[in-house]
Structures are given as C-alpha cells and as structure tokens.
Amino acid sequence: MEITSVGDSALIVRVRNRFEDAPKETLKEVLDVFRRLENARIPGVIELAPAYTTVAVFFDSVRVINATVEPNRASECLTQKIRDALARGKRKQNRQAAGPAIEIPVCYDPEFALDLDHVADHARISPNEVVDLHSTAHYLVNCIGFTPGFPYLTGLPKKLTTPRCAPPRKEIPAGSVAIGGTQAGIYPQVSPGGWNVIGRTPLRLFDAQKDPPVLLRAGDRVRFRAITREEFEALKT
Amino acid sequence: MNLIVTREGFQTTIQDLGRIGFRQFGVSSGGALDLHALRIANLLTGNAESAAGLEFTQGNIRLRFEDERILSWCGGDYEVCVASHLIPPGHSALVLSEDELSISGPRQGWRGWLAVSGGIAVPPVLGSRSTDLRANFGGLEGRALRDGDELLLGEQSDFARSLIDLLNERRVSSWSSPAEWSSTAKTKSVLRVIRGCDWDHFNASTHHALTSETFAVSPDSDRMGVRFNGPELHRNDDVDLVSEAVAPGTVQVPPGGQPILLLGDCQTIGGYPKIAHVITVDLSIAAQLRPEETVQFQEISLPEAHRLLFEREQELERFRIGLSLRNE
Predict the structure, then answer these.
(1) What ipTM goes with this model?
(2) Which pTM does this prediction carry?
C-alpha cells in the first residue's frame, strides 16, 4: 500500500490505484483501512477522511515531531505507525455492510427535473423510463465530498450515463438529485454544479446542528423512491 | 457585553482555529486563513489561542464596544485606531466602553485578524465558531458580518483584567510579538513548497517553470483558494485521476494549466493533479496575497518544512512564557 505526503500535515494511504474496475471491493477495503486507523488512535493524528481509493490521515505536525526521536524523520515515523496499524488484526466486518438501504424519496416533477428530458434524449428512452431505471437501481455511497454531505453514488444503470453539463450551472437548488457521468449524487446545499438534475428530495442531507451532521456516509446503501408533488411538500422539513 | 459592527467592511467573518473531524462528511476545516496570526492575537489579549476573533479582508471597518476590552490584531498593513490611539500590529491595546475602533487599508497585504479579550461568544457549530461561507453555518448565521450586527463577547481572563489595569494610561502596550508574526504582508512573496503526490505527472520543464517563473494572483481568488495567471503547467499524460483528499496549501492544476493554491475553505476532495504543497509556515504569507500581486514558488524538502514549523512552535512557546511572566 502506497503512503504519500499531502503537504506537511497530511498523508494519503492509497489502498488501490483504480476504482472503476472494482468499486464494491475498493470501497470495502478503503473503509477497512479507515476503521483500523481510527481504532489505532495514533498520537498526533487528528482526523481521517476516506475517498474512492484512499484514506487521508491529517496530523498535528508539531505533536508528531515531538513524539519522534529524530525530528527530520517525522513523516517516516508516522508512515511506519500507519503500516503497523494496518498490519495488525484481521479484517473486520464493516458496520454498514449488513445495514438496510436508506430510502431517499425523490419528486421527479418537471419543476424540479431540470435535465430529465436531456438525460432521456441522451439515453434514447422516455423520461418515465429514466425515472423507472433511476428509482429501481441499488446504489452505494462511495464517498462524501464536494460540499458538506454531498454523496457520490455508484450503481447508476449504465443506460443513464450522461456527461456533465458544460458550462456548469451557477446555482443548483438544495436537494437536487443528479447524474454526473456514470455517477449519481444529491446536492445538499444550493451550489454551483455541472451534473444533470432529474429530481429533488425533500430530505436534508446535511444539518450542521446534528451529530453526525450527515444523512449518508461512505459505505451506506441507497435506494430512490418516486414521490408526488404532494408527498414532497408533506415530507419537507 | 457586546461588540457592535458599525461598518461591516468587505468580508468580515468570525473565525477560530477551524473545524476538525468533519472532513469525512465533506466539511472544510475553515478557520482563520492565518491560524498562527490569530493565535498570536489571542495570546496578546489573554485569550485561549483557540478563541474566536474576526477576520477582515481589504476592509474599511468600524466596531464599537460596550465595555472595557483588550484588543490585538495581526496581518496585512492596516491602520487600526481607537480613540486617536494608533494600535500597531502584534500589540495589546485597551478599548473603553463606547470607544470606536477603526480599521482602514491595507496599504499592503489582504487580510487581518482581530482578537478581543473574552473572544466572540457565538455558539460553536460542529466544534468550531468559524463561519463556513460556502455551506452557510457557524459564526453569525453562517454569513459575513453586516452593519448593525451585535456580537456577544465572552468572559475575560484574569490576565486580560490585569492588562486592563496596566494599560489604563498608555492604552497601547510597550511589548509586542515578533514583527514577522504580526506583519505578514510581503512585497515580493516567495512561497516554499514541497513536491505534490502528482509531481511525476508533470515533466521537467513544467517543474522548472513552477519554481523559476512568476505567477500573478487572479482577482477570482477567495477563501477557498488563490487562482494564478502565469505560465501554463501541462501534464505528461491525460490519465483520469480518482478524486482524493486535498488540504489547505495544496497547489492543484486544472486542465487549463493555471494553478490554484487551496486555502482554509477549500473542498475536502479533488480530482485535479497536485503538483505541490505550500508548507504550513508559509500559509501566513499565502493569506496575504492580493489580486495582481506576483509570487514565486521555491522547492524545499519535507523534513525542512517540518523543521521550520517546529522552530516556529518553539519560538511561540518562548513568547507564551514571556507573556505569562508579565502577568506576575
């Protein structure tokens, strides 16, 4: 496993080099590395962040240097501690692996589905078929990023693959359910973005007042369920 | 007791040392873009280093205070005055009830940090009082300050109270922090970098261009990052990189070839190649880059970056001890 520096205060543990060829296995391995490092509680490590093929380890350089006999070998020492932690123990079952899929209600009404026709045209199917395909597929959260709580989902039916819009929109409404290339996602906040918007969820994906602040985490399974405009209003919080 | 914003400035926000532990949920670390400057200003007001203060940008600001407080500020070349007393950077100063503080400039640099004894007492959100302007939470309603905002100040420390007595006559302290910590604007900025994880995706002539040519700061820069105009940095290959963690200090190169230096409010993951990383010690200089200004990058090794950070921390410890002796 390759471990490289991201500046002087973070390292990246590269679990695999590629993602697309084995998304499920890669996610499992990344989450396994994440949990092992979490459990290892290495002195000076302040936070961990998993992404598709990597786990980033952020550290307080001064504490790490203080804990090192030779100050100019701080990174090497930390790298060794990470390797030791990863070598210890057996692979654990991930918490999410057996959990039920989290259901996300989506209203695909034209008012919200800004790019539904475009996605349908691109796939040469009807908008209704897009909705059917999108709402019957099984998805996995591969990572959270871009903006707080934004889930990057794999599992989008191949037929729905749609290139990102160019140029990106300046403002995509909060809750927008979208397709970007081979991935699906949901915009938790109003933000600029280039993905094709095909619906909107009334759920809040990010709430800074809650702990944890997110509805979805890396490793979660997700399903979409089509709802009417009335249900959308009723579910809105 | 409150601090009242009578003139908001251009982008004045509440910031502390940032939000740690929520990157896995896509939340930026944020915080003062020059964490070291805020720590120094806090120490000079008798606050914990992690207390929340104000970050101001290119601003014309006025603040009024309802009771006696100790202030300190660090950053660009601003003129900070209270009741006809000029407060130089890196000093402790006393404001009395109903005094108005004015901040004007900067003649050089871009941002500044003001600490007030007791700290800004907005409720912490996800472990920090920092304003996240992109996701609109933290600080005051997740936004920049406006005219008329009233900010509750926290309880002052015993050290702050002793400073109030001590500065009753002169108003401004005779002591100060080292100038290189409190006045961080440079005429010709040099940012020291270490190699990025995607260094090898670029060829030797691009490496040479990065460390020998001059880059101009684009007006399109903000708390997320500094965009540069300069020589185009091109990759050797067009392999699609998988998105992974980026951090404040990361220099990434989008397809156009114009590098972006990420700052405190940067996104948590990115897919552009990381050619280099500005060292933590030089993020203080990066926070002062103003549009049109030019910078150069200079390569150093990772152990050297750690040594510089460690030395600064040791000096800070000496400074902390020196300050606490004044309290006796």
Answers:
(1) 0.95
(2) 0.94
A139 and A214 share one domain? yes
- Distance, in Å, from the CA atom of B13 to the CA atom of B34, rounded to the nearest integer, reads 13
Could you list the pLDDT tens digit for every one of the 328 residues in chain B?
A: 899 999 999 999 999 999 999 999 999 999 999 999 999 999 999 999 999 999 999 889 999 999 999 999 999 999 999 988 999 999 999 999 999 999 999 999 999 999 999 999 999 999 999 999 999 999 999 999 999 999 999 999 999 999 999 999 999 999 999 999 999 998 889 999 999 999 999 999 999 999 999 999 999 999 999 999 999 999 888 777 889 999 999 999 998 899 999 999 999 999 899 999 999 999 999 999 999 999 999 999 999 999 999 999 999 999 999 998 876 5
| Radius of gyration over every alpha carbon of chain B, rounded to an integer in angstroms | 20
Whether the upstream peptide bond of residue A212 has omega within 30° of 0, thus cis, is yes
Q: In A, residues 92-131, which contact B (CB 8 Å cutoff)?
A: none
In a domain, A97, yes or no: no
Out of A58, A143, A213, closest to residue B126 by CB: A213
Cα-Cα end-to-end distance for chain B: 27
> Which among A125, A126, A121, A115 has a CA at the least distance from the CA of A180?
A115
Q: What Å distances lie between residue A138 and A131, A205, B158, B241, CA to CA?
A: 14, 18, 59, 25
Q: Does B26 touch chain A (CB under 8 A)?
A: yes
CB contact under 8 A, B247 and A6: yes
Q: Is A206 on the interface with B (CB under 8 A)?
A: yes
Same domain flag for A121 and A160? yes
Given CB atoms, is B245 within the 8 Å cutoff of chain A? yes
Based on the fold, state whether residues A186 and A231 are members of the same structural domain: yes
Residue of A nearest to B196 (CA): A6
- The CATH homologous superfamily to which domain B189-308 belongs is Cyclophilin-like (2.40.100.10)
Q: How many domains does chain A have?
A: 2
Q: Do B134 and A149 touch (CB under 8 A)?
A: no
Q: Of chain A residues 144-203, which have a CB less than 8 A from chain B?
A: 144-150, 152, 189, 191
Both structure tokens of A47: 């936070």
